[in-house]
């Protein structure tokens, strides 16, 4: 993790930090899976994901198993550099 990512994480709410750690260890997950893994409420996970999306730390995609759900994953350092260059 780069210093810019560390600074972003330091400013996050504890629930958002937990979501980052769960995604870091488990890889891409749906919101339902994040709720189960983190033991946080659905509202708390939703707020944490929104906060992480606003600062470009997670990206949302379509879940392969169920297209009605979104899959969330951490944005890699390389993706952060590419986005800032555009």
TrEMBL record:
Query: What Pfam family does this protein match (any one)?
Result: MarR
Any signal peptide, and if so, which residues? none
Q: Where is the HTH marR-type domain?
A: 20-68
Q: What domain of life? A: Archaea
Q: Which GO terms describe its molecular function?
A: DNA-binding transcription factor activity
Q: What is this protein called?
A: ArsR family transcriptional regulator
């Amino acid at each position: 993790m780069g210093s810019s990512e560390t600074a972003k994480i330091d400013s996050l709410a504890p629930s958002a930090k937990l979501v980052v750690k769960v995604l870091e260890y488990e890889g891409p997950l749906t919101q339902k899976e994040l709720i189960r893994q983190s033991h946080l409420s659905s509202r708390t996970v939703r707020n944490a994901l929104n906060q992480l999306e606003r600062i470009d730390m997670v990206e949302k995609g379509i879940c392969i198993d169920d297209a009605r759900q979104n899959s969330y994953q951490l944005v890699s350092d390389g993706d952060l550099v590419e986005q800032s260059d555009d």
